[in-house]
Amino acid sequence: METIEERIKYKIEEVERKNDVRVIYACESGSRAWGFASPDSDYDVRFVYVRHPAEYMRLDKTRDVIEHELNDVFDINGWDLQKLLRLLMKSNPTIFEWASSPIVYAERTEFARLRNLLPLYFSEKRSIFHYFSMMRNNLRSYFQSDSVALKKYLYALRPLLSCRWILEKHSPPPTSFSALRSETLPRIFDGDVDALLERKKNANEAERGRRIPRLDEFIGSECERLISVIETIPQRQNPGWKALNGAFFETIASAFAPS
């Protein structure tokens, strides 16, 4: 019987055939990559692809996203290399999350070389703003009653702990929640989070539970602390476009080079 990983790898090959592109990287994102999927969680597959070199010379604009499949089981879409590198110039946190996913379905040497560029374009300030906004939006949207969807605690804790990681380690936070919490969550909360993870893994996505006062207090106090320090983080200059342009030209030439 075909495994889910084999089905996903087949679908990645299908993306290449149907769109005449090369997929240089494919990974899991979302709850399965974070490590707290529910039984009914779908598979959020993300990939980076390269078009034929001549396609980048066209005058008419082409789409830089491929949306391959969306249903109850699979959510499969990807970005053109050009889009990825333009967003890397802005230190888009999604790129760093994809690159550190613990579940990788495909990786060509072209993407392995691109990994060397990532630390040069990481912005602590932009990343913390991103994760802080994500945490605050979760609090405003889902923590206004006595009960809350269980997964929302984890969806608030993940960006909060990501902010703590960036402030302490000055590097992109890991995608794996286990790796993230082991370095950033005070041990006093381990029991609460372990219980949340266990319930999340055995419940459906919509299951609700009572609020957890200890975690509420921790999240609230950390939110106040971050507000006071977030503006003081300096904006570091990245190396500019030259390195990205070089990586772009090298990758599109390599991806379609004769075997």
Word description of this protein:
- By secondary structure, this protein is an alpha+beta fold.
- The protein has two domains: 4-119 and 237-255, Beta Polymerase, domain 2, CATH 3.30.460; 124-232.
- Helix content is 52%, strand content 15%.
- The chain has eleven helices and seven strands.
- It has helices at 4-19, 31-34, 81-89, 93-99, 109-114, 124-142, 150-169, 177-184, 190-202, 213-229, 241-255, and strands at residues 22-29, 43-50, 65-70, 74-80, 104-107, 147-149, 208-210.
- It has a five-stranded mixed sheet with strand order 3-4-2-1-5, with helices on both faces. A two-stranded antiparallel sheet has the order 6-7.
- Helix 7 (150-169) crosses helix 8 and helix 7 (150-169) packs parallel to helix 10.
- The longest helix has 20 residues, at 150-169.
- It is globular and about 60 Å long.
- The model has no long low-confidence stretch (mean pLDDT 93).
- This is Nucleotidyltransferase, predicted.
- One of its GO terms (molecular function) is transferase activity.
- Keywords: Transferase.
How helix-rich are the residues, as a percent range? Answer: 40-55%
CATH topology of the largest domain: Beta Polymerase, domain 2
Strand content: 15-25%
Order of adjacent strands in the largest pleated sheet: 3-4-2-1-5
Which series of helices and strands comes N to C? Answer: HEHEEEHHEHHEHHHEHH
Derived from helix and strand composition plus strand pairing, the structural class reads alpha+beta
Major β-sheet, in short? 5 strands, mixed
Question: What is the averaged pLDDT score?
Answer: 93
How many domains would you count in the coordinates?
2
Assign an overall shape: globular
Number of strands: 7
CATH class of the largest domain: Alpha Beta
- Given as residue ranges, the uncertain stretches (5+ residues, pLDDT < 50) are none
Number of distinct helices = 11
The span between the termini is 32 Å
Tell me what the CATH architecture of the largest domain is.
2-Layer Sandwich
